[in-house]
Please model this.
Amino acid sequence: MTPDPLETARQMWADDPASRALGMSLRDLGPGHAAVAMTVRADMVNGYGVAHGGLVAALADSAFALACNSRGARTVAAGFDVSFLEPAYDGDELVATADERALRRRSGIYDVTVRRDQTVIAEFRGRSRALR
Model:
């Protein structure tokens, strides 16, 4: 029987206390793809009353991690860039959807869109590296 390549991502998610502490939930997982949701809580907003950018990036990073580990290889982030387009507020449910754009040997590129309903909150591009 062929091992399930998604098992690497599933196990990583099961062992991820940071994402759990932020209240994230896995919505979808497939080869090169993942979707993760998080509801912004009162303790997640900054001094202007909007969702802290680092926590929005953490949501995108968790979706990215799942997508890049969905091929069966243990993979880590080599870096990412994030652009914030709209604010999010206490009580907003955000969904980060990650999709593989390129995978060459041990390196990959993934785009993640964070939305509240149909509104794009942030765009994230992650670069991954599979471990030997």
